[in-house]
């Protein structure tokens, strides 16, 4: 009996020791129970209420916002001397975020509370999607100097009632990677100070009312994406654009740029997406610079004056999937290599030009094509497309406006690269 009691006592000691050890380990691994500073919490409520006052956030989240934050807010811990010392709001995200996050929509009469720019010093990301669509909301004239110097992303998308100058949003953001201002009411020129944001990887200013010329970007050596489309920018692209060798996408569509594209654009060896449609570029013949861009996946030059002939560059562009050469004015024959070299061509637009001759038979082998537009040219002869090819593309297969072009039947199944080619 005594031995059993001793064993029981030892088991009890072991249990107490193990429980104490596990608890201490958990306490060491878990961050300390810190709460958001009261002034920062109050500012958070204010900013949240300004974009949707109909949802009583202070009632729904009455205690520490960072303990169980709403989808609008992301918090993070901060350390000093390897010890967690504080917790702060690091992301503010209003409006739609993704199909997997059910963020509350912004109110039609959302406002922009000034506390956004004064109360969140460690802020890394700011995101507003379709929040300012009713009453006019003005940006502050300048960003306060105390606004987050660690900001990485500043995004305003689909806010037509948000007005002001882009220069108002250019602060001391030495770590800013993404500056996305799309579909807002911004006007004026793109400030030269943007070149001070040396960490930028993306600048997207599309669908605003920006004017004047192309900004100086030569210092932004990490830049991968520039999208100035759908504005009123004019002048010409500077020769220094060729120094931005990390470029993956350049989108200048629907502006008023003129003169020639600088020859230095050929230095952009990594470029994958080139969109220059509907400007006033050109006047120096075919865009031969394309031959120096072997990684191009899409090129859209429609609505400019790249006259002369379609260049023979397609053997160097085997990976291209989209070509837009509408309303450019080229004449002469369509190069056969345009149909044989690109292996994954999906979209081809050569309409409203002065092209003549026959459609190369290689075009009948474009097995991935889902849209072909050759309308309003001077093409002649018989078409090289099978019935199955035409049926697959249907309304996106366009040949009208070529009075001497004859659509013929081609027997057999859908054409592939190994199929026999029959004319009737």
UniProtKB/TrEMBL annotation:
Transmembrane segments: none annotated. GO terms for biological process: pollen tube growth. The keyword GTP-binding does not apply. Keywords: ATP-binding, Kinase, Nucleotide-binding, Serine/threonine-protein kinase, Signal, Transferase. It holds the Pfam family LRR_1. GO terms for cellular component: apical plasma membrane. Its EC number is 2.7.11.1. The keyword Calcium does not apply. Residues 1-24 form the signal peptide. One of its GO terms (molecular function) is protein serine/threonine kinase activity. It catalyses: L-threonyl-[protein] + ATP = O-phospho-L-threonyl-[protein] + ADP + H(+); L-seryl-[protein] + ATP = O-phospho-L-seryl-[protein] + ADP + H(+). InterPro entries: Leu-rich_rpt, LRR_dom_sf, Ser_Thr_Kinases_DiverseReg. This is non-specific serine/threonine protein kinase. It comes from Arabis alpina (Alpine rock-cress).
């Amino acid at each position: 009996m005594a031995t059993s009691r001793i064993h029981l006592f030892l088991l009890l000691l072991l249990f107490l020791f193990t429980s104490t050890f596990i608890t201490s380990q958990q306490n060491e691994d878990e961050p300390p129970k810190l709460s958001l500073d009261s002034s920062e919490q109050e500012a958070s409520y204010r900013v949240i209420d300004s974009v949707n006052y109909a949802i009583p956030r202070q009632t729904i989240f009455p205690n520490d916002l960072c303990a169980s934050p709403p989808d609008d807010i992301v918090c993070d811990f901060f350390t000093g001397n390897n010890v967690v010392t504080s917790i702060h709001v690091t992301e503010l995200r209003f409006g739609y975020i993704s199909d997997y996050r059910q963020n509350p929509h912004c109110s039609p009469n959302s406002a922009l509370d000034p506390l956004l720019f004064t109360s969140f010093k460690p802020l890394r990301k700011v995101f507003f999607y379709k929040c300012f669509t009713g009453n006019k909301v003005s940006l502050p004239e300048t960003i306060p100097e105390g606004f987050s110097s660690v900001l990485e992303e500043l995004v305003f998308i689909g806010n037509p009632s948000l007005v002001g100058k882009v220069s108002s949003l250019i602060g001391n953001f030495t770590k800013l990677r993404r500056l996305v201002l799309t579909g807002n009411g911004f006007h004026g020129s793109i400030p030269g100070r943007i070149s001070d944001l040396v960490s930028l990887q993306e600048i997207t200013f599309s669908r605003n009312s920006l004017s004047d010329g192309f900004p100086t970007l030569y210092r932004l050596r990490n830049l991968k994406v520039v999208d100035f489309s759908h504005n009123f920018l004019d002048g010409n692209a500077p020769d220094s654009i060729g120094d931005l060798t990390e470029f993956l996408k350049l989108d200048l569509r629907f502006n008023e740029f003129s003169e020639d594209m600088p020859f230095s654009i050929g230095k952009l060896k990594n470029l994958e997406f080139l969109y220059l449609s509907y400007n006033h570029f050109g006047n120096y013949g075919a865009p031969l610079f394309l031959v120096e861009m072997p990684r191009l996946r899409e090129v859209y030059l429609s609505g400019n004056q790249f006259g002369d002939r379609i260049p023979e560059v397609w053997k160097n562009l085997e990976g291209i999937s989209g070509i837009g050469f509408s309303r450019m004015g080229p004449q002469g024959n369509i190069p056969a290599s345009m149909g044989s070299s690109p292996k994954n061509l999906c979209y081809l637009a050569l309409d409203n030009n002065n092209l003549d001759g026959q459609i190369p038979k290689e075009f009948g082998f474009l097995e991935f094509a889902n849209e072909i537009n050759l309308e309003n040219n001077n093409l002649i002869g018989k078409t090289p497309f099978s019935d199955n090819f035409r049926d697959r593309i249907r309304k996106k297969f366009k040949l009208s406006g070529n009075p001497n072009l004859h659509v013929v039947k081609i027997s057999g199944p859908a054409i592939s690269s190994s199929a026999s080619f029959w004319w009737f």
